[in-house]
Amino acid sequence: MAVAFDDLALRVSLMAKRREPTQADLDRLLLDIFNDILTRGEQNRIARPQGYSPWVIDGNEWADEDLWMHPSADDDAEVWRTLLEFNRLDAAYPTVEAHLSERNLEMPRDDGRRKILLRMALATIASACAYDAEREEGVYRPVVPPFGLNGGVPLAAIDTFVSDFAMKPFSEVFKAYADAKVRKGDWSENSANKNPSKANLFIRVVGDIPFTHVQRRDALRFREVLERLPRLHGKSIYTGLAPADCVARADTIATQLADKKKQQIEIDGTKYRRAEAEKFVERLDPTTINATLSTVGGVFEWEHSNGAYPGRNPFDKLQATKRQVEKRKQGKVGREMWEPEHLEALFASPVWTGCASEKRRNKKGAFVIEDARFWLPLIALFAGLRADEALTLYVEDIREHQGIWFFDLYEDGDRSYKTKNSTRIIPIHEELIRIGILEYRDAAEAAGFHRLFEDFGARNKSGKFSDAYSRWFGDYRRDVVGQGDRYRDFHALRTTFDTFLERNMSGNSVMVRRVMGHQGHKNGTTDDYFKGYEAKDLKPLIDLLQYPISLAHLYVDKQKRLRPLKPYARKPRGNVVRVLAAD
């Protein structure tokens, strides 16, 4: 009993003396693990009888089918590589702990240093098993351990990587990536404003974990959430909700909508019309999902190209293919055109025929007030501008050249457009001139306006002016015009413009796409060479545009108007001068 107690005391004493390993200790340990596997394999081969073959039993190589299922050294190598790929660090723990214990060393206390040691051990075992598999087949070649003292990568170099980079949170690495993209000009102002929100969405789903801890399963989980996430997440009834809660709420609403007889849907005690509730269950568009995955996955590609991230991109090949995107969009209802009767109802409403006051646009009255509310639908209908494109027009962007008036859309330091093809010129339709766009421009300039429409002067977080206007127009068309169809919104006026242009041009789609601000050819073959149409080229196209409605009651000589209102408080724009070569 006393001897056993003394033995236990000795073991406890030895354990108490275990110390933190140095880098040299760990280099030696990895090399010993490597050599042990090769030594055991060679000892097994030496012990076999002369003429030994693993495939022949009692002279019949097919006698025991179970032999084919017996794991080989090559199988072992594959198993250890798989464990390494999936970061199964626990598999290497017993081997590493045994070697440390033999040397009276303890497992590294630092979490990052301990994990990298276990990964290196997995790689070491896999490499040794691969060499051993070759020796089983009689192939002997010079041996180079992946780590350690015989020419492999020293632990010290990797340990620095762990401490300086591997434990950085994803948010910190993404910020460095975003800063680099902006600095190099790879991202437009619009992308620089939007992309951080995509990274934040990833963090809200997965957490702000260390960058190198992001695994394939995290990327797959993120994609799964994106595919179920409502389009309005973060807004309206989803404000302040976590992504998972947004999905759950959308699913609950969808369950109620499944009852086709229900015309009112109750959400948290508030009742919504069915048409409004249907907007709440619309999920993210496949194109938006692809763009989000590309942005978040891009940071891994960037770090890999810089030599700072050695692993495979966990977002690799997660995006839907073009065919998959088209398939998912099949059956999806797109924006509707504004039919003639809808347009007549819109332009016969108080904003265009007379309202009660500036604050009461919905009520009939004696005042026609010229501002963004009045002009934007007309500009979208006759020039095809997006709401934000129209709201960011400057007074000097209505220009004249060779007797042709046109809108001049170009990027400068204060604004950027959706795509590079959005920079364009669009001749001003004669109907807009008859309604008084040139008189409005002169009045805005005389009033000291910089932008043409300054009554909607507040940008949202993404740098857009159009959010507030889109909300106003949506409420107005529903409550006053009686057009509550969610597919017939402001942007549908642009759809109407596009449709009528295509019909009138009888197939000259390249010119129409240029006017719309799209790529000239769908395959982009000429875009690198063609530098755009001039106003005189596009004027005949615009002149062909005719709608089967009369807007004569809006002509400037038929109405008395208030124009324009007080400029919105703004920051100085600076001296920006747009010069055309032939002016």
From TrEMBL:
Database matches in Gene3D superfamilies: Intergrase catalytic core
Molecular function via GO: DNA binding
Top-level division of the source organism's lineage: Bacteria
Protein name: Tyrosine-type recombinase/integrase
Record organism: Parvibaculum sedimenti
Keyword annotations from UniProtKB, A to Z: DNA integration, DNA recombination, DNA-binding
UniProt xrefs under InterPro entries: DNA_brk_join_enz, Integrase-like_cat_sf, Tyrosine_recombinase_XerCD
GO biological process, one term: DNA recombination
SUPFAM superfamilies: DNA breaking-rejoining enzymes
Family to which the UniProt record says this protein belongs: Belongs to the 'phage' integrase family.
